[in-house]
């Protein structure tokens, strides 16, 4: 049963988070501020969240007087995310769902903008989120809307000892990276460079390389034209990125065609690779199925010991020396000391919203519960390691919360610093942030798979993918797709102006 908005609810908004985490010597403004309020929480099933939350929920309910109802959702490939979460008729107050579904739920009007009051430092502390996350994954047209819990970003791991012995520097650009990959016999004793090119991950790996060639700092358009909705996947920047990707794969062992991020991390820490692209924990989740970064049953995976006497360094993914300026049809040098650094994320992870159907009091209670569950004091136990990544500046001070035991304190600090630099980057691109995302991603994966077995078809590959994207756009509605893309960039839908 839902209770109507009480006359004192406005007051509750000002003290909404004061009841949680109060110290004994501080005055308590309100006792049980949400007494009689029911908060329904929907979240992906099978991740261990329900069990992990048990004690925390009991404590929060006792402090606030509210009641929590949990509704785990099974995500599979046979239904849409909206159907999996029960549709509007069965919406929850607090909704945790895959980052890749933001456009699906957002375009359907499931969640509103988070008010300025709720974004304040003593509440959701919006500005504590890394800039790239809060401006891209967190915000849509209209303003801030979702709060990320996990949002992995690919990072370059390298053997610091081997590069130092050869008097070489870590790569700043993809060109420098490629030279290192092609000369491993000289500087790494033949240890390879590896990347995650499994079928499930190859579109993400390709796009992570492509965005620095494609995303010009003065232009919005990346995947689709923001005025027409026309696919850009066969443009000059994407074409160059594909050719460079093929060169990189050809310099790697054939096993990378089956490697996911877990494989790359395992091989690197075992001392069997000189450089690797991977990340620590998080999700790689092809919608609508939410799959952890390590898709294997944890009970069947034998932990691999770290190789002795290796020194490890971390680096944000390289950028490109040139970036294509679409509006002028020219290539221009990167503006950041000659390098165009662009971060790709939003290919996996989990985020939270509060339903547009919730009352003002229910909204306050739901965000209060979320803040409690994701606090630094609670997060180590409320969210299993595979369900959280660092998303906030304040979180980087606690490396033990995010990193495994096989990293030293210095390595952990270095890794988190590079991740922070990637996620704080204003040049930040979400991977295919539109409705129908999985259809576009599948078409790209099919094209890449064909091209990897027949590299001579590179140029025609992306033209074929672009044709397939147009067909998908036609079925979705070109204007609908265009405006979905615009909303994800914080732009007004053109349909509102026509």
TrEMBL record:
A GO CC annotation given for this chain: periplasmic space
Pfam families linked: SBP_bac_1
Protein name: Bacterial extracellular solute-binding protein
Compartments (UniProt record): Periplasm
Family to which this protein belongs: Belongs to the bacterial solute-binding protein 1 family.
InterPro entries assigned to the protein according to its UniProt record, in alphabetical order: Bact_solute-bd_prot1 (IPR050490), SBP (IPR006059)
Main location: periplasm
Taxonomic source organism: Symmachiella macrocystis
């Amino acid at each position: 049963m839902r209770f109507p908005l009480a006359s004192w609810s406005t007051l509750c908004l000002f003290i909404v988070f004061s009841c949680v985490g109060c110290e004994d010597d501080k005055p308590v403004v309100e006792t049980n501020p949400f007494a009689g309020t029911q908060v329904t929480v929907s979240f992906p099933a099978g991740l261990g969240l329900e069990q992990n939350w048990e004690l925390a929920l009991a404590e929060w309910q006792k402090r606030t007087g509210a009641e929590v109802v949990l509704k785990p959702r099974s995500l599979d490939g046979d239904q849409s995310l909206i159907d999996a979460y029960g549709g509007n008729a069965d919406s929850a107050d607090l909704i945790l769902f895959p980052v890749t579904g933001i456009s699906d739920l957002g375009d359907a009007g499931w969640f509103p903008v988070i008010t300025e009051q709720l974004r304040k430092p003593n509440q959701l502390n919006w500005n504590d989120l890394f800039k790239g996350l809060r401006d891209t994954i967190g915000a849509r047209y209209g303003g801030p809307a979702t709060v990320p819990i996990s949002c992995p970003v690919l990072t370059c791991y390298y053997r610091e000892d081997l590069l130092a012995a050869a008097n070489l520097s870590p790569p700043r650009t993809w060109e420098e990276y490629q030279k290192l990959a092609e000369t491993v016999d000289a500087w790494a004793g033949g240890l390879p460079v590896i990347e995650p090119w499994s079928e499930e991950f190859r579109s993400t790996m390709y796009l992570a390389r492509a965005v620095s060639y494609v995303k010009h700092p003065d232009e919005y358009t990346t995947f689709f034209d923001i005025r027409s909705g026309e696919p850009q996947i066969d443009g000059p920047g994407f074409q160059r990125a594909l050719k460079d990707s093929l060169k990189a794969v050809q310099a790697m062992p054939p096993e990378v065609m089956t490697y996911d991020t877990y494989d790359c991390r395992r091989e690197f820490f075992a001392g069997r690779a000189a450089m690797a692209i991977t990340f620590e924990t998080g999700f790689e989740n092809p919608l609508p199925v939410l799959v952890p970064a390590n898709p294997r049953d944890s009970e069947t995976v034998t932990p691999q010991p770290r190789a002795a006497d290796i020194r490890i360094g971390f680096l944000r993914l390289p950028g490109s020396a040139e970036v294509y300026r679409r509006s002028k049809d020219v290539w221009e040098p990167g503006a950041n000391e000659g390098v165009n650094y662009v971060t790709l994320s939003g290919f996996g992870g989990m985020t939270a919203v509060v339903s547009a159907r919730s009352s003002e009091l229910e909204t306050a209670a739901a965000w209060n519960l979320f803040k409690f569950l994701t606090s630094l004091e609670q997060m180590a136990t409320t969210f299993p390691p595979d369900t959280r990544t660092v998303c906030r500046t304040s979180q980087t001070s606690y490396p033990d919360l995010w990193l495994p035991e096989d990293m030293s304190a210095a390595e952990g600090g270095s890794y988190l610093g590079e991740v922070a630099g990637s996620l704080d980057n204003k040049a930040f691109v979400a991977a295919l942030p539109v409705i129908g995302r999985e259809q576009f991603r599948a078409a790209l994966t099919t094209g890449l798979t064909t091209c990897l077995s027949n590299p001579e078809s590179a140029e025609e590959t992306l033209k074929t993918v672009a044709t397939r994207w147009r067909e998908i756009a036609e079925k979705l509605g070109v204007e609908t797709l265009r405006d979905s893309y615009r909303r994800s960039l914080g732009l007004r839908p053109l349909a509102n102006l026509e």
